[in-house]
Amino acid sequence: MIxxxxxxxxxxxxxxxxxxxxxxxxxxxxxxxxxIAKRLEAEYFTMCKDDGQVIIRTQINKKYLVFVPTIADLxxxxxxxxxxxxxxxxxxxxxxVWSPGLRVVYVGLDPxxxxxxxxxxxxxxxxxxEHYSTSTT
Length: 137
Description:
Blueprint: H1 4-12, E1 25-28, E2 33-41, E3 44-49, E4 54-59, E5 65-67, H2 71-76, E6 82-89, E7 92-98, E8 104-108, H3 111-135
Antiparallel strand pairs: 1-2, 1-5, 2-3, 3-4, 6-7, 7-8
Helix pairs in contact: 1-3
């Protein structure tokens, strides 16, 4: 699972922050890892800390929450990219992000983090390309 600072970095870089739904994981403004336990009615949810302690039974204000994407959420934002593992030494493994052209483009120790970090790299490259294509025309 990605850290609060990485989730915040993703959100600030434009990673989609979906509508809240039961089963999702979010960080609150204090950096506590929380999950949406169940929908009570309309927009009211039971929200729990990672340890299961109920912290909110109220309407959720997304202004104070940062979405924690799953591996599936991250891959959905990078169509054609894949994730795999590779053994680098006896019983030591890394996670690899593969491009649609089947090249390894990023490597790390945690699957969620490696995808989040590569999404940020990819987003930064897109912004650079956009900036330079508009400044040279």
